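#lab-general

N.A. 3:47 PM
ok so I finally got the sequence cleaned up, no stray characters, all 311 residues accounted for. can someone with queue access submit it? mine expired

B.Y. 3:52 PM
send it over

N.A. 3:53 PM
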Amino acid sequence: MGLSLKWTDIVGMLCALSLLTTSVQGSEHSAPVSEEDQVISQQLMSQLQDWYRAADENDPDAYFNLGQYHRTGIGIEPDLELAEFFYGKAAELGHLSAQKNLATLYYFAFPDSPRTQQAHDWWLRAAYSGDNEAQMRLAALYFKGPVLMDPIEGAAWVFVAANSGDMKAKVAQDQLENNLSADALVQVKERQAILQTQMKRMPPSSFEANLQSSDAESSPMHLSIPIEGPRHYVQVAALTNREDADQMAKKIQTEHKDILEQARAYVMEFMPATGRVIYRVQIGSMDEASHAAALCRQFKQRRIDCFVGRD
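B.Y. 4:20 PM
back already:
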């Protein structure tokens, strides 16, 4: 990849800046209910009614507040699925905090977390909106891998955040500049310029349409197995180098053949909205989502991050 700094050092540096170490947890309320608590509860119920009425009108702030309510569990048991639903409604409407909270839920909060691809997609949207926290979390994902391993992209997002004045990003940028090779530094700065140009040309409201258009128009350029009809698969990596992706697919096939049964590891070439070719290492195909989910659980037990997808 042209990086002289060890990836583990970079990840450790970013985690030290609290970029991938924050979990989302609900509050516990087991104490007796006082008169003051009852008054607060009545006020909360009134507020909830207002939020639900506003949500009926598709108000993003109301959706976000309902997501917060169900995530934190104020007076109730936290419900992450409802939090995901309401955050998702707000996030789709462009609510920045909802996008970041939804990504955080996917990465930290669920029993099968990290849901790396889903977290990435929402942090990416927030990052394109200019949010420094999302940009730095996205960078940490690209450095951490292996599902999304792209250290050049990760460093570029650090530089983007630093350019807007984020102090944590500036600290990370200084360390990267002191450890990257000259060639890698050139690549990072070139990618930084492209990202900043895309951010100017792609306002938040157009990001989803651009991404959907790219997904619809982009078709696999290469498959090492034939695909017919609807299929489920398990994705274990998304790399920027074709040779690395091919080697990983072969390694998965060889070292984990005991759990693959009839499934096969292969590489899918994909062109996302950002314009950089991504090589997805996947295992498939499976008729039932439950089979793919069971396989993904086995990979996670072997400390291999993954998620289930469907074409």
